[in-house]
Amino acid sequence: MNKHIAVINGDGIGPEVTAQSVRVLNAIAEQFGHEFTYTYCLMGADAIDKTGNPLPDETVEGCLNADAILFGAIGHPKYDNDPTAKVRPEQGLLKLRKSLQLFANIRPVSTYAALEHLSPLKAKQLENVDFVIYRELTGGIYFGEKKVAEDYSEASDLCVYTKTEIERISHLAFKAAQQRRKKLTLVDKANVLESSRLWRKVVQEIAPQYSDVVVDFLFVDNAAMQIILNPKQFDVVLTENMFGDIISDEASVISGSLGLLPSASVGAATALFEPIHGSYPQAAGKDIANPTGSILSAAMMLDHFGLHKEAEVVRAGVNWALANGFVTKDIDPVNYYFTSTIGELISDFV
Amino acid sequence: MNKHIAVINGDGIGPEVTAQSVRVLNAIAEQFGHEFTYTYCLMGADAIDKTGNPLPDETVEGCLNADAILFGAIGHPKYDNDPTAKVRPEQGLLKLRKSLQLFANIRPVSTYAALEHLSPLKAKQLENVDFVIYRELTGGIYFGEKKVAEDYSEASDLCVYTKTEIERISHLAFKAAQQRRKKLTLVDKANVLESSRLWRKVVQEIAPQYSDVVVDFLFVDNAAMQIILNPKQFDVVLTENMFGDIISDEASVISGSLGLLPSASVGAATALFEPIHGSYPQAAGKDIANPTGSILSAAMMLDHFGLHKEAEVVRAGVNWALANGFVTKDIDPVNYYFTSTIGELISDFV
Ligand SMILES: CC(C)[C@H](C(=O)O)[C@@H](O)C(=O)O
Ligand SMILES: CC(C)[C@H](C(=O)O)[C@@H](O)C(=O)O
């Protein structure tokens, strides 16, 4: 199989973890007789530094011409502490999501026996945790009209959802539930927000088309508790953009390490794969970042290409490394391996 | 001291837990020679059933004429599952917060040795947890303009903040930090939202007036992780309405029981005290709900009246009951006491 992949290293530890995924993808290509080619594109603080623009046109074009996108991380502290900055790295990612219509962010949440001691949760909470969050990614308050008064006396953000936006991701989430344990939980704040009430209405309307799926509803404040109190109750969690941002990051602590978790952002035409961790600038350039979140994102990409056997081999490599103590500093601060060593070991395993 | 208290029982378990607080307040009054008088007011589903209005005018008036308000809980499932309902219990609470300008919701988060086994978090996470969340309560997306298209093709909510709204709660939070461990953490999403950038700007501007307080900033998605991973890092957490709703409920799981946690909502003219738990309709009328969240809210009310010794006695009563196994079913499902028994025991302790 021939596949063309756009690679966006991004900021901070982005380049180093992404390099290991490319290495693993190359090992898979060689092993299974595929051809993967790559175009490197700029985005984020990196792109601002080099071009003044967090998302140069060539990047959008490069992504549109690719079969899928592998992305590292975005963000730099120099922008975070300047609330009046006009250009910001994150604009690049938001604009890319919008341009490519990557409307569904999919984040599996599971646990690893080898990491149990790192989880903040008790063993009881970790039993049988296996759910996936479907976060709407191109609508809501992130993309609604933003205003700030010239004298900074007032600022606002608008949260808008259309029925169509809610429907398309809801169908994906219902279909995922049908392939899983047949339960879908909508997280909203329908007791207060009009947009949440629209979500609830649309999901209630669609539900009869998936009569084998049991639907329930949770207010986001309650969901923030339930994810910690009883995470095994969830199968597919569906939610809007901002709530998804918050609860999927919250859910990511369950496993014991952020460094391990992958995600996929899918649209009608293409899909982007990225680890859920951020750019973590303190660790950049030190060869200590955990590359497995990115490598498992590459595995999700292989699944997306229909290469399920190959994806399984990558996941087996990650599990093998974990089980044998081949881990980065975030997981074992004493006996640890470098980012590049983990990438090499998993490539060799493949 | 003479104090007049407006009591709003509200919905579900509201009446039964509030009754125990009144009992404890009466015991305090007798013991310390105060006179507390009460006016009972309607709000929520209860008020809709009786008057058609979730917040009758007499309730606002009753609250304005009182020195403080003791409130139970709000909400009923029959409204939650009808996204097109025009009247909802929660409107009552939101309107009351707005009418009385209760702009700061204050929620202490701490742990109890006797409940450690109930916490979903490991002992390591629970060490030295002692922080307080200042949630803005009368602005943001809860109160911004709401729209829904007649054909339900689109819906929106506007999140607006003015500089003045941010300033008044920020000053309270900074002052609280000065009385505590001198650290303030602003939780926002300044990398995406214009309103969050205004929060960050205003807090940065105010900070020099409180030069003994160390200020840091966390994006809300990161905060949702840090609260679980390392809660002891927090002292005073300041945030806007919706983020505060989510992270304060998340933080409430740390202690091991929601049933124990109090809150105060303060404004320029008056203050309202309520347990953080909801109306929990499944338990209503069974005399099994935990009244300590409400009783500790009453203790916060005593503090608000300047009756610190009295507040300490109430807290001592709660600690004594907990330490001696006088607990409700949520805490010990086998050897448990009734709501009313706990109220009686704590009153007797006083
Ligand atoms: C970087 C930021 C804009 C982004 C978001 O909030 O969407 C990130 O937190 C994420 O979750 O992918
Ligand atoms: C009932 C609801 C409107 C309320 C809120 O979200 O503010 C509640 O969840 C709370 O946190 O006090």
TrEMBL record, chains A, B:
Example GO biological process: L-leucine biosynthetic process
What are the coiled-coil residue ranges?
none
The molecular function terms in GO held by this entry are: 3-isopropylmalate dehydrogenase activity; magnesium ion binding; NAD binding
Key word NAD present: yes
Give, as in the UniProt entry, the pathway in which the protein acts: Amino-acid biosynthesis; L-leucine biosynthesis; L-leucine from 3-methyl-2-oxobutanoate: step 3/4
Q: Which cofactor does it need?
A: Mg(2+); Mn(2+)
NCBIfam families recorded? leuB
State the similarity comment: Belongs to the isocitrate and isopropylmalate dehydrogenases family. LeuB type 1 subfamily.
Recorded hits in PANTHER family, A to Z, give: 3-ISOPROPYLMALATE DEHYDROGENASE (PTHR42979:SF1)
Its annotated function is as follows:
Catalyzes the oxidation of 3-carboxy-2-hydroxy-4-methylpentanoate (3-isopropylmalate) to 3-carboxy-4-methyl-2-oxopentanoate. The product decarboxylates to 4-methyl-2 oxopentanoate.
Q: What is this protein called?
A: 3-isopropylmalate dehydrogenase
> From which organism does this entry originate?
Cnuella takakiae
Primary gene name:
leuB
